[in-house]
Prior knowledge:
With 342 residues, this protein is an all-alpha fold. 65% of the residues lie in helices and 2% in strands. A hairpin with a 2-residue loop joins β1 (333-335) and β2 (338-340). Residues 1-13, 78-83, 109-114, 191-200 and 335-342 have low confidence and may be disordered.
Amino acid sequence: MADDAKGVTAVPAKLNPMERAAVLLMTVGEQDAAQVLKHLGPREVQRLGTTMAQLSNVQRGSVETVFNDFIGVVREQTGLGVGNEEYIRTMLVSALGEDRAGSLIDRILLGGSTKGLDTLKWLDSRSVAELIRYEHPQIQAIVISYLDPDQAADVLQSMPENVRLDLVVRIAKLTSVQPTAIQELNDILEKQFSATNAPQKGLGGVKCAADIMNFLDSSIESKIMEALQTVDEALATSIADLMFVFDNLKEVDDRGIQSLLREVSSEVLILALKGSDEELREKIFRNMSKRAGELLRDDLENKGPVRVSEVQTAQKEILAVARRLAEAGELVLGGKGGEQML
Protein backbone atom coordinates (compact mmCIF):
# COMPACT_ATOMS: atom_id res chain seq x y z
CA MET A 1 0.00 0.00 0.00
CA ALA A 2 1.54 3.25 -1.09
CA ASP A 3 2.36 5.92 1.49
CA ASP A 4 1.38 9.56 1.15
CA ALA A 5 4.25 11.65 -0.20
CA LYS A 6 4.62 15.38 -0.89
CA GLY A 7 0.94 16.03 -0.33
CA VAL A 8 -0.21 13.44 -2.87
CA THR A 9 -3.09 11.27 -1.63
CA ALA A 10 -2.25 7.57 -1.57
CA VAL A 11 -4.37 5.44 -3.86
CA PRO A 12 -5.07 1.93 -2.49
CA ALA A 13 -4.35 0.25 -5.81
CA LYS A 14 -3.57 -3.04 -4.10
CA LEU A 15 -6.66 -3.20 -1.91
CA ASN A 16 -8.78 -6.15 -3.00
CA PRO A 17 -12.59 -6.13 -2.57
CA MET A 18 -12.45 -7.91 0.80
CA GLU A 19 -9.91 -5.39 2.13
CA ARG A 20 -12.06 -2.50 0.93
CA ALA A 21 -15.05 -3.98 2.75
CA ALA A 22 -12.92 -4.42 5.89
CA VAL A 23 -11.70 -0.81 5.75
CA LEU A 24 -15.28 0.40 5.36
CA LEU A 25 -16.53 -1.61 8.34
CA MET A 26 -13.59 -0.61 10.55
CA THR A 27 -14.29 3.08 10.00
CA VAL A 28 -18.07 3.19 10.49
CA GLY A 29 -17.86 2.28 14.17
CA GLU A 30 -18.39 -0.90 16.16
CA GLN A 31 -22.19 -0.72 16.46
CA ASP A 32 -22.84 -0.06 12.77
CA ALA A 33 -20.30 -2.66 11.74
CA ALA A 34 -21.97 -5.21 14.04
CA GLN A 35 -25.34 -4.51 12.37
CA VAL A 36 -23.80 -5.21 8.96
CA LEU A 37 -22.13 -8.41 10.12
CA LYS A 38 -25.47 -9.73 11.41
CA HIS A 39 -26.62 -10.00 7.81
CA LEU A 40 -23.58 -11.94 6.60
CA GLY A 41 -23.02 -15.66 6.56
CA PRO A 42 -20.34 -17.46 8.58
CA ARG A 43 -17.81 -17.57 5.76
CA GLU A 44 -18.19 -13.83 5.03
CA VAL A 45 -17.88 -13.01 8.73
CA GLN A 46 -14.80 -15.21 9.08
CA ARG A 47 -13.09 -13.75 6.02
CA LEU A 48 -13.94 -10.17 6.90
CA GLY A 49 -12.80 -10.68 10.49
CA THR A 50 -9.52 -12.22 9.35
CA THR A 51 -8.96 -9.39 6.88
CA MET A 52 -9.67 -6.77 9.56
CA ALA A 53 -7.16 -8.40 11.90
CA GLN A 54 -4.51 -8.43 9.20
CA LEU A 55 -4.94 -4.80 8.14
CA SER A 56 -2.37 -2.42 9.55
CA ASN A 57 -1.02 1.05 8.81
CA VAL A 58 -3.89 1.92 6.49
CA GLN A 59 -3.17 5.38 5.09
CA ARG A 60 -5.71 8.18 5.41
CA GLY A 61 -5.75 8.52 1.64
CA SER A 62 -6.64 4.86 1.31
CA VAL A 63 -9.61 5.21 3.66
CA GLU A 64 -10.82 8.30 1.79
CA THR A 65 -10.58 6.51 -1.52
CA VAL A 66 -12.58 3.53 -0.23
CA PHE A 67 -15.32 5.86 1.03
CA ASN A 68 -15.33 7.90 -2.17
CA ASP A 69 -15.72 4.73 -4.23
CA PHE A 70 -18.56 3.54 -2.01
CA ILE A 71 -20.33 6.92 -2.14
CA GLY A 72 -19.88 6.95 -5.89
CA VAL A 73 -21.73 3.66 -6.16
CA VAL A 74 -24.57 5.00 -3.99
CA ARG A 75 -24.87 8.23 -6.02
CA GLU A 76 -25.33 6.27 -9.23
CA GLN A 77 -28.65 4.96 -7.96
CA THR A 78 -31.85 6.72 -9.09
CA GLY A 79 -33.20 6.97 -5.55
CA LEU A 80 -34.41 5.02 -2.55
CA GLY A 81 -36.81 2.28 -3.49
CA VAL A 82 -35.93 2.52 -7.18
CA GLY A 83 -33.84 -0.23 -8.69
CA ASN A 84 -33.25 -1.76 -5.28
CA GLU A 85 -32.19 -5.14 -6.63
CA GLU A 86 -29.56 -3.69 -8.95
CA TYR A 87 -28.36 -1.36 -6.18
CA ILE A 88 -27.92 -4.27 -3.74
CA ARG A 89 -26.05 -6.32 -6.32
CA THR A 90 -23.77 -3.43 -7.31
CA MET A 91 -23.04 -2.43 -3.72
CA LEU A 92 -22.23 -5.95 -2.49
CA VAL A 93 -20.12 -6.86 -5.50
CA SER A 94 -18.23 -3.59 -5.13
CA ALA A 95 -17.63 -4.25 -1.43
CA LEU A 96 -16.96 -7.99 -1.41
CA GLY A 97 -16.16 -8.96 -5.00
CA GLU A 98 -18.23 -11.12 -7.36
CA ASP A 99 -17.52 -14.49 -5.75
CA ARG A 100 -17.90 -13.45 -2.11
CA ALA A 101 -21.08 -11.46 -2.78
CA GLY A 102 -22.80 -14.27 -4.69
CA SER A 103 -24.27 -16.29 -1.83
CA LEU A 104 -25.21 -13.18 0.12
CA ILE A 105 -27.03 -11.72 -2.90
CA ASP A 106 -28.97 -14.97 -3.29
CA ARG A 107 -30.07 -14.91 0.34
CA ILE A 108 -31.27 -11.32 0.11
CA LEU A 109 -32.88 -11.35 -3.33
CA LEU A 110 -34.46 -14.81 -3.17
CA GLY A 111 -36.58 -13.74 -0.23
CA GLY A 112 -34.68 -15.66 2.44
CA SER A 113 -35.91 -19.02 1.15
CA THR A 114 -32.64 -20.68 2.13
CA LYS A 115 -32.43 -19.46 5.72
CA GLY A 116 -32.63 -22.96 7.10
CA LEU A 117 -29.72 -24.09 4.96
CA ASP A 118 -27.70 -21.03 5.96
CA THR A 119 -27.77 -22.10 9.58
CA LEU A 120 -25.74 -25.18 8.61
CA LYS A 121 -22.81 -22.96 7.63
CA TRP A 122 -22.41 -22.02 11.28
CA LEU A 123 -22.10 -25.66 12.37
CA ASP A 124 -18.95 -27.74 12.33
CA SER A 125 -18.76 -30.23 9.47
CA ARG A 126 -19.23 -33.33 11.63
CA SER A 127 -22.45 -31.91 13.05
CA VAL A 128 -23.77 -31.24 9.54
CA ALA A 129 -22.86 -34.79 8.49
CA GLU A 130 -24.66 -36.23 11.51
CA LEU A 131 -27.69 -34.05 10.83
CA ILE A 132 -28.14 -35.32 7.27
CA ARG A 133 -26.74 -38.84 7.70
CA TYR A 134 -30.16 -40.54 7.63
CA GLU A 135 -31.80 -38.27 5.07
CA HIS A 136 -32.44 -39.30 1.47
CA PRO A 137 -29.22 -39.14 -0.63
CA GLN A 138 -30.73 -36.44 -2.86
CA ILE A 139 -31.40 -34.29 0.21
CA GLN A 140 -27.82 -34.90 1.33
CA ALA A 141 -26.53 -33.85 -2.09
CA ILE A 142 -28.55 -30.63 -2.04
CA VAL A 143 -27.29 -29.72 1.42
CA ILE A 144 -23.65 -30.41 0.53
CA SER A 145 -24.00 -28.46 -2.73
CA TYR A 146 -25.23 -25.42 -0.84
CA LEU A 147 -22.21 -25.27 1.46
CA ASP A 148 -18.94 -23.55 0.55
CA PRO A 149 -16.57 -26.02 -1.16
CA ASP A 150 -14.14 -26.36 1.75
CA GLN A 151 -16.92 -27.05 4.27
CA ALA A 152 -18.69 -29.29 1.76
CA ALA A 153 -15.51 -31.34 1.36
CA ASP A 154 -15.23 -31.75 5.13
CA VAL A 155 -18.85 -32.88 5.34
CA LEU A 156 -18.35 -35.35 2.48
CA GLN A 157 -15.30 -36.78 4.22
CA SER A 158 -17.37 -37.19 7.39
CA MET A 159 -19.98 -39.25 5.54
CA PRO A 160 -19.64 -43.06 5.30
CA GLU A 161 -17.16 -44.09 2.63
CA ASN A 162 -19.72 -46.21 0.79
CA VAL A 163 -21.98 -43.22 0.02
CA ARG A 164 -19.38 -40.65 -1.07
CA LEU A 165 -19.29 -41.68 -4.73
CA ASP A 166 -23.08 -41.60 -5.03
CA LEU A 167 -23.17 -38.14 -3.46
CA VAL A 168 -20.52 -36.75 -5.84
CA VAL A 169 -22.49 -38.09 -8.83
CA ARG A 170 -25.72 -36.57 -7.52
CA ILE A 171 -24.03 -33.21 -6.87
CA ALA A 172 -22.52 -33.15 -10.36
CA LYS A 173 -25.90 -33.89 -11.96
CA LEU A 174 -27.82 -31.27 -9.99
CA THR A 175 -28.90 -28.21 -11.99
CA SER A 176 -31.59 -26.52 -9.90
CA VAL A 177 -33.73 -27.19 -6.88
CA GLN A 178 -37.49 -26.81 -6.70
CA PRO A 179 -38.89 -24.51 -4.01
CA THR A 180 -40.63 -27.52 -2.45
CA ALA A 181 -37.25 -29.17 -1.91
CA ILE A 182 -35.92 -26.03 -0.22
CA GLN A 183 -39.07 -25.99 1.92
CA GLU A 184 -38.53 -29.64 2.88
CA LEU A 185 -34.98 -28.89 4.00
CA ASN A 186 -36.15 -25.92 6.03
CA ASP A 187 -38.81 -28.11 7.64
CA ILE A 188 -36.13 -30.61 8.60
CA LEU A 189 -34.17 -27.79 10.20
CA GLU A 190 -37.33 -26.47 11.90
CA LYS A 191 -37.16 -23.19 9.97
CA GLN A 192 -40.70 -22.56 8.76
CA PHE A 193 -41.26 -19.98 6.00
CA SER A 194 -42.90 -19.90 2.61
CA ALA A 195 -41.15 -20.82 -0.62
CA THR A 196 -44.30 -20.90 -2.77
CA ASN A 197 -43.30 -18.15 -5.19
CA ALA A 198 -39.55 -18.52 -4.90
CA PRO A 199 -37.60 -19.09 -8.12
CA GLN A 200 -35.63 -22.25 -8.65
CA LYS A 201 -32.29 -22.10 -6.91
CA GLY A 202 -29.23 -23.04 -8.93
CA LEU A 203 -27.26 -25.59 -6.94
CA GLY A 204 -24.84 -28.36 -7.69
CA GLY A 205 -23.45 -29.14 -11.12
CA VAL A 206 -20.11 -30.42 -12.40
CA LYS A 207 -18.26 -27.26 -11.31
CA CYS A 208 -19.66 -27.58 -7.78
CA ALA A 209 -18.53 -31.22 -7.64
CA ALA A 210 -15.06 -30.26 -8.92
CA ASP A 211 -14.72 -27.50 -6.32
CA ILE A 212 -15.60 -29.92 -3.53
CA MET A 213 -13.21 -32.57 -4.87
CA ASN A 214 -10.41 -29.99 -4.80
CA PHE A 215 -10.72 -29.77 -1.02
CA LEU A 216 -10.85 -33.50 -0.30
CA ASP A 217 -7.84 -35.36 1.09
CA SER A 218 -5.81 -36.84 -1.76
CA SER A 219 -6.51 -40.43 -0.76
CA ILE A 220 -10.28 -39.90 -0.65
CA GLU A 221 -10.23 -37.87 -3.87
CA SER A 222 -8.33 -40.63 -5.69
CA LYS A 223 -10.71 -43.36 -4.53
CA ILE A 224 -13.79 -41.41 -5.59
CA MET A 225 -12.34 -40.50 -8.99
CA GLU A 226 -11.25 -44.09 -9.67
CA ALA A 227 -14.70 -45.39 -8.76
CA LEU A 228 -16.39 -42.64 -10.79
CA GLN A 229 -14.37 -43.65 -13.86
CA THR A 230 -15.99 -47.09 -13.75
CA VAL A 231 -19.50 -45.75 -13.05
CA ASP A 232 -19.64 -42.77 -15.42
CA GLU A 233 -16.44 -42.12 -17.38
CA ALA A 234 -17.79 -39.02 -19.14
CA LEU A 235 -18.84 -37.43 -15.86
CA ALA A 236 -15.48 -38.27 -14.29
CA THR A 237 -13.71 -36.57 -17.19
CA SER A 238 -15.93 -33.48 -16.91
CA ILE A 239 -15.19 -33.16 -13.19
CA ALA A 240 -11.46 -33.74 -13.67
CA ASP A 241 -11.35 -31.07 -16.40
CA LEU A 242 -12.62 -28.46 -13.92
CA MET A 243 -10.46 -29.43 -10.97
CA PHE A 244 -7.44 -27.32 -10.11
CA VAL A 245 -4.53 -29.65 -9.49
CA PHE A 246 -0.89 -29.06 -8.65
CA ASP A 247 0.18 -29.34 -12.28
CA ASN A 248 -2.09 -26.39 -13.13
CA LEU A 249 0.35 -24.09 -11.33
CA LYS A 250 2.12 -23.96 -14.70
CA GLU A 251 -0.70 -21.67 -15.85
CA VAL A 252 -0.25 -19.17 -12.99
CA ASP A 253 1.68 -16.08 -14.04
CA ASP A 254 5.13 -15.31 -12.64
CA ARG A 255 3.86 -12.66 -10.25
CA GLY A 256 1.36 -15.12 -8.78
CA ILE A 257 4.04 -17.80 -8.40
CA GLN A 258 6.27 -15.30 -6.58
CA SER A 259 3.43 -14.47 -4.17
CA LEU A 260 2.87 -18.18 -3.60
CA LEU A 261 6.54 -18.90 -2.91
CA ARG A 262 6.61 -16.24 -0.20
CA GLU A 263 3.92 -18.19 1.67
CA VAL A 264 5.32 -21.71 1.35
CA SER A 265 8.13 -23.25 3.40
CA SER A 266 11.13 -24.82 1.64
CA GLU A 267 10.42 -28.22 3.22
CA VAL A 268 6.87 -28.33 1.87
CA LEU A 269 7.98 -27.07 -1.54
CA ILE A 270 10.67 -29.73 -1.86
CA LEU A 271 8.22 -32.51 -1.03
CA ALA A 272 5.63 -31.16 -3.47
CA LEU A 273 8.12 -30.81 -6.32
CA LYS A 274 9.26 -34.43 -5.87
CA GLY A 275 6.01 -35.34 -7.61
CA SER A 276 6.10 -32.68 -10.36
CA ASP A 277 7.53 -32.66 -13.87
CA GLU A 278 10.52 -30.67 -15.12
CA GLU A 279 8.39 -27.92 -16.68
CA LEU A 280 6.79 -26.96 -13.37
CA ARG A 281 10.09 -27.21 -11.54
CA GLU A 282 11.72 -24.83 -14.02
CA LYS A 283 8.86 -22.37 -13.58
CA ILE A 284 9.44 -22.42 -9.83
CA PHE A 285 13.21 -22.01 -10.21
CA ARG A 286 12.70 -19.10 -12.63
CA ASN A 287 10.70 -17.17 -10.04
CA MET A 288 13.32 -17.49 -7.30
CA SER A 289 16.59 -15.68 -6.86
CA LYS A 290 19.54 -17.43 -8.52
CA ARG A 291 20.98 -18.46 -5.16
CA ALA A 292 17.63 -19.74 -3.80
CA GLY A 293 17.01 -21.66 -7.01
CA GLU A 294 20.40 -23.36 -6.84
CA LEU A 295 19.81 -24.38 -3.22
CA LEU A 296 16.40 -25.78 -4.09
CA ARG A 297 17.83 -27.80 -6.97
CA ASP A 298 20.48 -29.25 -4.67
CA ASP A 299 17.92 -30.09 -1.99
CA LEU A 300 15.71 -31.84 -4.55
CA GLU A 301 18.60 -33.88 -5.90
CA ASN A 302 19.74 -34.87 -2.41
CA LYS A 303 16.26 -35.67 -1.15
CA GLY A 304 15.82 -39.40 -0.85
CA PRO A 305 12.70 -41.39 -1.71
CA VAL A 306 9.49 -40.10 -0.12
CA ARG A 307 6.04 -41.58 0.24
CA VAL A 308 3.47 -40.65 -2.38
CA SER A 309 1.10 -39.64 0.43
CA GLU A 310 3.68 -37.13 1.71
CA VAL A 311 4.01 -35.59 -1.75
CA GLN A 312 0.23 -35.36 -2.14
CA THR A 313 -0.17 -33.77 1.29
CA ALA A 314 2.48 -31.15 0.47
CA GLN A 315 0.85 -30.39 -2.87
CA LYS A 316 -2.55 -30.02 -1.22
CA GLU A 317 -1.05 -27.62 1.30
CA ILE A 318 0.40 -25.46 -1.46
CA LEU A 319 -2.87 -25.53 -3.39
CA ALA A 320 -4.71 -24.38 -0.24
CA VAL A 321 -2.32 -21.42 -0.03
CA ALA A 322 -2.88 -20.71 -3.74
CA ARG A 323 -6.65 -20.61 -3.24
CA ARG A 324 -6.28 -18.27 -0.27
CA LEU A 325 -4.10 -15.92 -2.33
CA ALA A 326 -6.59 -16.13 -5.19
CA GLU A 327 -9.39 -15.10 -2.83
CA ALA A 328 -7.27 -12.11 -1.82
CA GLY A 329 -6.75 -11.18 -5.47
CA GLU A 330 -3.01 -11.87 -5.40
CA LEU A 331 -3.03 -14.55 -8.10
CA VAL A 332 -5.34 -16.09 -10.68
CA LEU A 333 -5.88 -19.84 -10.78
CA GLY A 334 -6.41 -21.37 -14.19
CA GLY A 335 -7.74 -24.92 -14.06
CA LYS A 336 -7.96 -27.42 -16.91
CA GLY A 337 -11.37 -26.08 -17.73
CA GLY A 338 -10.15 -22.55 -18.32
CA GLU A 339 -9.13 -19.53 -16.31
CA GLN A 340 -11.22 -18.90 -13.21
CA MET A 341 -11.14 -16.86 -10.04
CA LEU A 342 -11.40 -18.96 -6.91
